[in-house]
Amino acid sequence: MVPFVDMRRSFLIAGSLGAALVGTLACGDDGGGDMNPPQESVSDGTTDRFGIVDLSVAAGTGVAGFDGDALADRWTVRHDRLLVAVGTFRFTAADGAEVTHEASGVVDLLQASSPALLAAVNVPVGSAEVGFSLPVATSRFSAIGSTSAADLELMASNGYSIYIEGTITRKDGMTCTGDAPPVCTPAPEVRFRWGVPVGLDIDDCPTLALGEGDLIEQVLTLTGDRWFRTDFADDAEPTLRAQWIANADTDRDGETTLEELERLPAATLLRSDLGYDLRRAAPIAVTTARDFVEAQVRMMARDAFTGCKTVSAL
């Protein structure tokens, strides 16, 4: 495994990108000291040559929520918490040499409207296959960026990979069951708090091509729209609906829980006559409404780097 070196961003962008990229800045340098000598390749004894991959994470579409105009059923969506655990980023060369960066942290996407730098990673020149993981958080994880200590503790103590909390609101909103005719009760606001305890590994992402001294940005963009989509397609303008969340509040207490979703058949709640397609391109079998949430979370993870194809449980 080729060692990872996390360089100072200011040093990288300043353009000192030659052989110095394979060393680290000398501590306590008074201006007259030299850089550490270049690393030697374990495979052929020659000096390694590197490009730089800037890894960052950012919030994408729908992280804050949506106004009523965005959803086909006119619900307004607000996310109060959207937390994601990020793990290992992998860059694998054609000869099998691998560079990794262990982020091991929790990101508060509501505080990530601009890309937040995770690391500047030295990757050997040539082509590199890319992969990454969104594991369950543990006590070893740290808070990334503006993530609060309370949010880090929530993720780590429960072993969540992703946590979603918010509300859907509509002045004339209803919770309805059945369809012949449906039985409805007023529900102007419905809460949801869903923690997903399944780590995910994402692979088969587009290959990077790095020349010596190249600086490539890789932004992990995580969205908040997937659980409102009606299918698993990659449509640029998907149809979004939220009525299913209101209808899943079977005890009418104003909150839809994962336990309620687990008891509800997906095909009954997410009906094909409303445009739902629970089979085409689904990453897992969708039997219950909870399966639908977890399947859409997998799609959120897969789409974080454009063009990734494979997502699986860790």
Please provide a written account of the structure.
With 314 residues, the protein is mainly beta. It has six helices and 15 strands. It has helices at 9-13, 149-158, 243-247, 258-263, 266-269, 289-302, and strands at residues 50-59, 65-66, 76-93, 98-108, 116-124, 126-134, 142-144, 162-169, 174-177, 183-186, 189-196, 200-210, 215-222, 255-256, 310-313. The strands form three sheets. Strands 2, 3, 4, 6, 7, 8, 11, 12, 14 and 15 form a ten-stranded mixed sheet that branches. A three-stranded mixed sheet has the order 5-1-13.
Structural features:
314 residues; three-stranded mixed sheet; 6 helices; 15 strands; disordered N terminus; mainly beta
Question: How would a crystallographer describe the biggest sheet?
Answer: 10 strands, mixed
- Cα distance, first to last residue? 21 Å
Regions with pLDDT < 50 over 5+ consecutive residues? 1-47
Number of helices in the DSSP assignment: 6
Order of helices and strands: HEEEEEEEHEEEEEEHEHHHE
Radius of gyration: 23 Å
- Given the helix and strand composition, which structural class is it? mainly beta
Overall geometry comes to elongated
Strand content: 35-45%
Average pLDDT number:
87
Oligomer: single chain
What's the number of extended β-strand segments?
15
- Portion of residues within helices: 10-25%
